[in-house]
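Re: the request from the purification team.
They wanted to know what the chain is likely to look like in 3D before they choose a buffer screen. I agreed to run a prediction and write the result into the notebook, where they can find it.
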Amino acid sequence: MAHPIPKPSDPAALDDQFMAFVEIVRLLRRQCPWDREQTHESISHLLIEESYETLDAIEQGDDVEFKKELGDLLLHVVMHSIIAEERGSFTLREVIEQVAAKLVRRHPHVFGDVEAHQPDQVMQNWERLKMQEGRDSILAGVPKHLPALLRAQRMQEKAAHVGFDWKSSDDVWNKVREEIDELQQATDSESFAAEFGDLLFALVNTARHAGVVAETVLQSTNDKFQRRFQYIEQQAYQRGEPIESFTLEQLDAWWNQAKRERL
């Protein structure tokens, strides 16, 4: 059954808080020398940084930090919208209206009479509707500046939603073995680079089929390597010698000790 589209209510509650926040940002644009000189380009890298800090808070299960980082993201949305208003391009109201309309349009199973009882059906409808809105490729919405592993997984997910996917985990693993063979047979740096990329792409597929986000687990492994290597550094420091003065066997022994201590 189709649900009615929600309308704003209780203007004395969240609406007032939000508009007060927007006015603070407008005041900063007028009165603060730093905020006044910022452009979309000058703060674009900060938006990426705040996004990653939000991800860190989610992974750590830290709701105090999570709440703070969501506020920082909201600040960037409002700041960029106000800068756009000043340029005469679009307004914050238009940003909100557009995303609200998109949510309604892309959820016909909630606000219309389309049937969708499984997540896969929802995603298939989502991709079909995006194509109807004018995109020339299902992959067009995957940003090129995403980290490579995450970009690979998002492209694979989108292709899978329209049926372009391996039918079984055996097929996925066979592709990995094929890519390993081709990598081992590479005869020059150019072919090695190409085959190595193909192998990474195939490994991302194995992660996706297992319900794992390759980018996330590699970051977790990076963190683990950092903790264990820093343990080795601490051991060397406690002995008053530079780390390079110890043999690989000694360094490896400390590494294994770090593993036993579950670092």
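For the purification team: The first helix runs from residue 14 to 31.
Please add any questions underneath this entry.
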